[in-house]
Design a protein that fits this description.
Blueprint (H helix, E strand, L loop, with lengths): L4 E6 L2 H12 L5 H4 L6 E4 L4 E6 L1 H9 L5 E5 H7 L4 E5 L5 E8 L11 E5 L2 H10 L4 E5 L6 H4 L5 E6 L3 H5 L2 E10 L1 E5 L1 H6 L1 H17 L1
The structure holds 1-O-pyrophosphono-5-O-phosphono-alpha-D-ribofuranose (PRP).
Length: 212
């Protein structure tokens, strides 16, 4: 894949937003739009190959250098860490990490060790460590909002976008943890070996984002 730039996109919304961005840059995205069940698609005439993957796997493929670039949420970056460069804040996929729990309850009241449920245990650990606060963390795979409702946790650290899920389940944000948006990441070796191609693409992306 010498001259080809391979970019892994997080399947779903970030994939769609990136494809729209490429289209507004004048790229032929027809193959990606008509992808069917295919997972590797060309951007015709640009020497770019799009790879569709789950968020955490985008990071894995970029770290291992089998994809040069990746588009992934800051939430996954914060949770997984890893060795790659973060190049551009793409501005879409905006949401935030927040500490939330039952409405009207003071999370910080009392001296007992609190239990916090999250799909993002590393983000949760880092957040409470930065406060010097000891908490028990319970890993939940999805619909984390259930944990305080069922009495498993005093709070959750989760993604909040519109706030509707919290509201409709009688929960509220206690505190913001970190803002989240989509990022363009690059393999550290690709950044050297394919510098010219990558720089050119990043310049085009940044120009398009400025014009939005
Ligand atoms: C995410 C997040 C919240 C919801 C927030 O869940 O975990 O549940 O979206 O969005 P809102 O503020 O706009 O209501 P997702 O749909 O990714 O599924 P999950 O619960 O299985 O992680």
């Amino acid at each position: 894949m010498n001259d080809v730039i391979r970019i892994a996109l997080t399947k779903g919304r970030l994939e769609k937003d990136t494809v729209n961005l490429f289209e507004s840059m004048g790229f032929d995205v027809s193959a990606v739009r008509d992808k069917g069940r295919r997972l590797i698609l060309p951007i015709n005439g640009r020497g770019i190959e799009v790879v569709l993957a789950k968020a955490a796997d985008v990071i894995t493929y970029v770290e291992h250098g089998v994809c040069d670039l990746g588009v992934v949420g800051k939430d996954t970056i914060m949770e997984h860490g890893g060795k790659y460069f973060e190049l551009v804040d793409l501005g879409f996929g905006k949401c935030r990490f927040a500490l939330a729990g039952k409405k009207g309850t003071d999370f910080y009241k009392g001296y007992g060790v609190k239990t916090v449920a999250s799909k993002y245990t590393n983000v949760t650990r880092a957040f409470f460590e930065s406060k010097g606060m000891d908490v028990d963390i319970v890993k939940i795979e999805g619909s984390v909002e259930l944990a305080p409702l069922l009495g498993l946790a005093d709070g959750i650290v989760d993604i909040v976008e519109t706030g509707t899920t919290l509201k409709e389940n009688g929960l509220e944000v206690y505190e913001n943890v970190a803002p989240v948006s989509a990022r363009l990441i690059v393999n550290t070796v690709s950044m050297k070996l394919k510098k010219e191609c990558i720089d050119r693409l990043v310049e085009m992306i940044e120009k398009e984002l400025r014009n939005k």
